[in-house]
């Protein structure tokens, strides 16, 4: 890719100018033609963990810039949620890298949403030419690879990251190569977390049903327990495999590989180790009989209690219709299905996450409370795109909703041509 094209991409993402601790302007055009990786560091001067992480990041950055053969290929940019300019400026003076200007709130918000940042501090490494996420858990990189030897910290194959002995709860071990040719659930969980415990109970049943139906299926527990004793106790309830608790490095690498931001998380992989879905928890709760195993993403979902959590994971198109019974939602699903399939296929080909999830909603308590929360008009059918994390909504209130109307609405949204209203 030409450096001109890359520069154009960075200017689009960050704007023309950044600033540094000396109050000097930094020209984004001059960030360096050798740049290949950009670390977006999201934080706030008033946050204790950010202060702490900042010190580790400074140490990491100066070592990297001194001794790594890749020193010209990495830059970091600070994106703050500070409200007070003086506190922001003081924090900036502790940093050796540039930041987005304080006043540029719109750009900051866009980056928080684009990279789905839900907590701070957060460090997301992206490809400087395309903006694709290379590694979501930069905090673990700084902790686990202080010398930067594994640059550029991109995803490795599952088989390589999980390699080594795995435990059974009868104390016997088996090698990770035993997972080959099986569907695999990678289960991030801990006993101290109540939603984890209740999911484990359901998962034990689902595991049994899937195995009984003749599928090759295995689950690997990656513990976030706080002691080996509580790990052992929790694992004794599980009929599957686990990464040894003492192998902290391997547990951390798996967290890094899948950008785990909260537990419980159940990731499903196919027999080649490619991801089928991150939403294993939702799927298991939605499909207790495991009829839809291995839970390939469906292009259009019917909104319900257990999948409503996905409304918070990024922009969602929701088509509200006049339907009281489940079967009545079918025509609405058929209307948007081809458009959803096309978008899924397009982004899958680019190896990127789908930028929009698709839902149909009937008339029930769930839909009512969603309409109330987002302050939508009473009309039905009503075509909307809701972006909860950005507190933004887009509403298309037309007499008749046709595939052409939906297609135009979606392409205008993806091209950022629609004007958001606040939620």
From TrEMBL:
<feature type="domain" description="Thioredoxin">
    <location>
        <begin position="152"/>
        <end position="314"/>
    </location>
</feature>
<keyword id="KW-0217">Developmental protein</keyword>
<keyword id="KW-0539">Nucleus</keyword>
<comment type="similarity">
    <text>Belongs to the nucleoredoxin family.</text>
</comment>
<protein>
    <recommendedName>
        <fullName>Nucleoredoxin</fullName>
        <ecNumber>1.8.1.8</ecNumber>
    </recommendedName>
</protein>
<keyword id="KW-0879">Wnt signaling pathway</keyword>
<dbReference type="InterPro" id="IPR012336">
    <property type="entry name" value="Thioredoxin-like_fold"/>
</dbReference>
<dbReference type="InterPro" id="IPR013766">
    <property type="entry name" value="Thioredoxin_domain"/>
</dbReference>
<dbReference type="GO" id="GO:0005829">
    <property type="term" value="C:cytosol"/>
</dbReference>
<keyword id="KW-0520">NAD</keyword>
<dbReference type="InterPro" id="IPR036249">
    <property type="entry name" value="Thioredoxin-like_sf"/>
</dbReference>
<dbReference type="GO" id="GO:0005634">
    <property type="term" value="C:nucleus"/>
</dbReference>
<keyword id="KW-0963">Cytoplasm</keyword>
<dbReference type="GO" id="GO:0031397">
    <property type="term" value="P:negative regulation of protein ubiquitination"/>
</dbReference>
<dbReference type="InterPro" id="IPR045870">
    <property type="entry name" value="TryX_NRX_thioredoxin_dom"/>
</dbReference>
<keyword id="KW-0221">Differentiation</keyword>
<keyword id="KW-0560">Oxidoreductase</keyword>
<dbReference type="GO" id="GO:0016055">
    <property type="term" value="P:Wnt signaling pathway"/>
</dbReference>
<dbReference type="Pfam" id="PF13905">
    <property type="entry name" value="Thioredoxin_8"/>
</dbReference>
<dbReference type="GO" id="GO:0004791">
    <property type="term" value="F:thioredoxin-disulfide reductase (NADPH) activity"/>
</dbReference>
<dbReference type="GO" id="GO:0030154">
    <property type="term" value="P:cell differentiation"/>
</dbReference>
<dbReference type="GO" id="GO:0030178">
    <property type="term" value="P:negative regulation of Wnt signaling pathway"/>
</dbReference>
